[in-house]
Amino acid sequence: MALLVLDREVLPGKRRYTMAELAAKSGTDLSTAQSLWRAVGFPDLPEELPGFTDDDVKAMKSFIETLTASGIGEIDLDSSLTIARVLGSSLATAADAVSESVADRFRLARDAGVSDEELASVIAGQSQLPQLAEMVDHIFRLQLRAAFWRRLALVDTDHSGSIPGSIGFVDLVGFTALSEEIDEEELGGLVRRFNDMAYDTVASANGRVVKTIGDAVMFVAHTPEITADIATQITARSLLDPALPRARAGIAEGELVVRQGDYFGPVVNLASRLTDMARPGTVLAPTAMGEQLANGGRFDVHRLGRRRVRDIGRIDICSIKSLPA
Fold first, then answer.
1. Does 244 lie in the same domain as 173?
2. CB 166 within 8 A of CB 227
3. What CATH code is carried by the domain that includes residue 222?
4. Same domain, 27 and 112
5. Are 229 and 205 in contact (CB under 8 A)?
6. Is 252 exposed, middle or buried, given 0-12, 13-18 or 19+ CB atoms closer than 10 A?
7. Are residues 179 and 132 in the same domain?
8. DSSP one-letter string for 91-112
9. 234-246 per-residue burial string, b: 16 or more CB within 10 A, e: under 16
10. What whole-number distance in Å separates Cα of residue 283 and Cα of residue 319?
């Protein structure tokens, strides 16, 4: 019963339209409607199943309007579907985090003897979904403004499809082996602890987390100095936290290919490979980048010579440490 109440709180309204009816009421064809539905991460529904509400019609109409009317020219279907995929993936991650928190509270309530009927009553009377939706909208606007400044400032430059920047990866040494030794709750807590620390460090240094994959965190920054500062801080903080395995990092800088909110290209590959090579508690970088950092007087750079980097070849690399302030 509690789950049914929660379902209605999240998406109120009667499911009255099939996919074909949704498309017709939105002023588009069935193929376009199905493409959008898949792009946001959901499978096709049975043809005769009424799975859509009036709010779905309203949302679909808004999407169609973005295809036909824009102050800077029409937005093609492929571009719109790309945006839908990124939003769907990002919001699915956010939804997982919220549902995990709610599930934890459900478990605690049931362990305390609270019935499904009582849970349903609490959900119906204390829903925070409107506030959550406002928060999501505002955070998206903040991120959109920041993204416009990052990207549109480069519109008149020669960087077609790429931007200059620095990339970094950091992960926990021995994480895979450790995941076989501890239970799921401990593992989840460890990952959350590391991610919390990484997000805090990246944001406070004016960088941005691109994504997390298990224990690995990928981040980007405008300058090599910021990237090195983030990487050295995270590795140093991991050494001081007895609950965490030691972290290691790899960084690189140059032209970054940006697609669908993610970063690609040789610079990204190099930073990832250097992370794999780094020892616990260390940060590796190409020597050319290290020399640039050394000139700033904030980092101690130790040359390691030419090393073979998997799938890339032999390059000059160095290790980087922060100097005392």
1. yes
2. yes
3. 3.30.70.1230
4. yes
5. yes
6. buried
7. no
8. HHHHHHHHHHHHHHHHHHHHHT
9. bbebbeeeeebbe
10. 6
Q: Tokens at residue 113, please?
A: 């003897």
Q: 140: domain range?
A: 2-152
The two tokens of residue 223 are 């300058």
Summarised one tens digit per residue, pLDDT across range 178-187 is 888 888 888 8
Concatenating the DSSP letter of every residue in 196-233 gives HHHHHHHHHTT-EEEEEETTEEEEEESSHHHHHHHHHH
Question: Which residue in this structure is represented by tokens 């593992």?
Answer: 187
Q: Which of 310, 270, 299, 297 lies closest to 286, judged by CA? A: 270
User: What is the C-alpha separation between 91 and 51, in angstroms, rounded?
Assistant: 20
Which tens digits make up the pLDDT trace of 7-41? 777 778 899 999 999 999 998 999 989 988 888 88
Closest Cα partner for 245 from 197, 178, 169? Answer: 178
Given a contact cutoff of 8 angstroms between Cβ atoms, the answer to whether 315 and 254 are in contact is: no
Are 207 and 233 contacting, i.e. CB atoms less than 8 angstroms apart?
no
* Structural domain count, the chain: 2
List CB contacts of 35: < 8 A, sequence separation 6 or more: 77, 81
Structure tokens at 247: 């972290």
pTM of the predicted model as reported, rounded to 2 decimal places: 0.68
Q: Pull the structure tokens for residue 136.
A: 């999501």
Which residues are paired to 300 by β-bridges?
Answer: 321
